[in-house]
Amino acid sequence: MSKDNQILKDIIYFFSDVFEVKGEKYKYADYKAEWLSRINLAKNWAQEASTARTTKLLQEFLKSKYEKRIKIEAPVAEGMTLRFDSENSQSENLKIKIDSSKLQAFDILDLEEGCAYEISLSDAFAEFFKDVLKALLDSRVKKLYLCMRNHNYQGASKSGYLKVRDSAMVQQYISLAKLYKLDIYLVDIFPECNSFNGWVRNI
């Protein structure tokens, strides 16, 4: 992971004001009461509301700083070109119309560096596969940063950074993606709650 990735540093800095460490035996990143107040939500509001409003404010923050360098909610395959070039390619005879407005979007896309940033504040394990597929299908994306936190799991369907990081299947997908010229990075956006595992943030 590049030490010069200022956008990623800004993302982690942003979340340092959003979360605090909760839990005793299992530490997790929960929303600060003052943050929820700032985004006009109470503690008993649905998790999805907190997630959506927080991500929106992050996008606005980055857009104001980087302006035309980044796109927020950037449609997949917008301005698509071939990921692979080959002398034997018959792509010139292949005419495919893609309406990117009907596809999903990247949370944040750095147009200069070819980096996509996906912010997963809820079920990170499930979103991993969807986000990888989007990145593989968009030739602009050379690096995919999956930004996650750990949270208070409410049922087996919920997952965070640790489950994704420790999954052998996820690691195999990350290795496989390299064959398709895509580098994938797993990012703990609030590592304070995972310091007991000996993990050190490396940016």
Explained architecture:
A hairpin with a 4-residue loop joins strand 4 and strand 5. By secondary structure, this protein is an alpha/beta fold. It has helices at 6-16, 33-38, 47-66, 124-136, 161-165, 168-178, and strands at residues 19-22, 28-31, 70-75, 105-110, 115-120, 143-148, 183-188. The protein has one domain (6-75, 102-197). The protein is globular and about 55 Å long. The termini are close together. 33% of the residues lie in helices and 19% in strands. The protein has a five-stranded mixed beta sheet. Mean pLDDT is 85; it is low at 197-203.
**Kindly, what is the distance between the CA atoms of the first and last residues, rounded to a whole number of angstroms?**
6 Å
| Main sheet properties | 5 strands, mixed
* Count of discrete alpha- or pi-helical segments spanning 4 or more residues: 6
| Fraction in beta strands | 15-25%
Shape: globular
Number of strands: 7
Entry summary:
This protein is an alpha/beta fold and 203 residues long. 33% of the residues lie in helices and 19% in strands.
List the helices and strands and how they pair.
Blueprint: H1 6-16, E1 19-22, E2 28-31, H2 33-38, H3 47-66, E3 70-75, E4 105-110, E5 115-120, H4 124-136, E6 143-148, H5 161-165, H6 168-178, E7 183-188
Parallel strand pairs: 5-6, 6-7
Antiparallel strand pairs: 1-2, 3-4, 4-5
Which descriptors apply to this entry?
19% strand; 203 residues; five-stranded mixed β-sheet; 7 strands; 6 helices; 33% helix; disordered C terminus; alpha/beta
